[in-house]
What we know:
The chain is mainly α. Helix content is 65%, strand content 0%. The protein has three helices and no strands. The chain starts with a helix and ends with a helix.
Amino acid sequence: MSLTGGIIVFVLAWWISFFAVLPIGVKGQWEDGSTIPGTEEAAPKNPMLMKKVIWATGGAVVVTALAGLFIPLLLAQ
Protein backbone atom coordinates (compact mmCIF):
# COMPACT_ATOMS: atom_id res chain seq x y z
CA MET A 1 0.00 0.00 0.00
CA SER A 2 1.34 3.42 -0.92
CA LEU A 3 1.60 6.38 1.45
CA THR A 4 -1.40 8.02 -0.21
CA GLY A 5 -3.43 4.84 0.15
CA GLY A 6 -2.43 4.57 3.80
CA ILE A 7 -3.51 8.14 4.48
CA ILE A 8 -6.85 7.55 2.78
CA VAL A 9 -7.45 4.34 4.74
CA PHE A 10 -6.51 6.11 7.99
CA VAL A 11 -8.84 9.07 7.38
CA LEU A 12 -11.77 6.82 6.45
CA ALA A 13 -11.12 4.50 9.39
CA TRP A 14 -10.81 7.48 11.75
CA TRP A 15 -14.17 8.96 10.77
CA ILE A 16 -15.92 5.58 10.92
CA SER A 17 -14.37 4.90 14.34
CA PHE A 18 -15.26 8.40 15.55
CA PHE A 19 -18.91 8.07 14.57
CA ALA A 20 -18.99 4.60 16.15
CA VAL A 21 -17.73 5.83 19.56
CA LEU A 22 -19.53 9.18 19.52
CA PRO A 23 -22.77 8.06 21.25
CA ILE A 24 -21.02 5.97 23.93
CA GLY A 25 -21.49 7.29 27.45
CA VAL A 26 -23.38 10.44 26.48
CA LYS A 27 -26.25 11.57 28.66
CA GLY A 28 -28.67 14.28 27.65
CA GLN A 29 -29.50 17.23 29.85
CA TRP A 30 -33.05 15.97 30.30
CA GLU A 31 -31.86 12.73 31.94
CA ASP A 32 -30.72 14.43 35.14
CA GLY A 33 -32.90 17.53 34.94
CA SER A 34 -30.07 20.01 34.44
CA THR A 35 -31.37 21.64 31.27
CA ILE A 36 -29.69 24.97 30.67
CA PRO A 37 -32.17 27.65 29.52
CA GLY A 38 -31.90 28.30 25.80
CA THR A 39 -30.48 24.86 24.92
CA GLU A 40 -32.05 21.71 23.56
CA GLU A 41 -33.03 19.19 26.24
CA ALA A 42 -31.41 16.37 24.27
CA ALA A 43 -28.08 18.20 24.01
CA PRO A 44 -25.30 16.20 25.65
CA LYS A 45 -24.25 17.35 29.10
CA ASN A 46 -20.64 16.16 28.84
CA PRO A 47 -19.80 14.72 25.37
CA MET A 48 -16.18 13.76 26.31
CA LEU A 49 -14.96 14.60 22.81
CA MET A 50 -11.22 14.45 23.52
CA LYS A 51 -11.56 10.95 24.96
CA LYS A 52 -13.50 9.88 21.87
CA VAL A 53 -10.95 11.45 19.52
CA ILE A 54 -8.23 9.40 21.24
CA TRP A 55 -10.29 6.19 20.95
CA ALA A 56 -11.06 6.90 17.30
CA THR A 57 -7.37 7.52 16.57
CA GLY A 58 -6.42 4.23 18.22
CA GLY A 59 -9.07 2.38 16.25
CA ALA A 60 -7.94 3.99 13.01
CA VAL A 61 -4.32 3.07 13.69
CA VAL A 62 -5.29 -0.57 14.22
CA VAL A 63 -7.46 -0.69 11.08
CA THR A 64 -4.75 1.02 9.00
CA ALA A 65 -2.09 -1.39 10.28
CA LEU A 66 -4.28 -4.38 9.44
CA ALA A 67 -5.01 -2.97 6.01
CA GLY A 68 -1.29 -2.35 5.49
CA LEU A 69 -0.59 -5.99 6.29
CA PHE A 70 -3.41 -7.65 4.40
CA ILE A 71 -3.83 -5.52 1.26
CA PRO A 72 -0.35 -6.37 -0.12
CA LEU A 73 -1.00 -10.05 0.60
CA LEU A 74 -4.28 -9.95 -1.29
CA LEU A 75 -2.76 -8.07 -4.24
CA ALA A 76 0.15 -10.52 -4.50
CA GLN A 77 -2.14 -13.43 -5.34
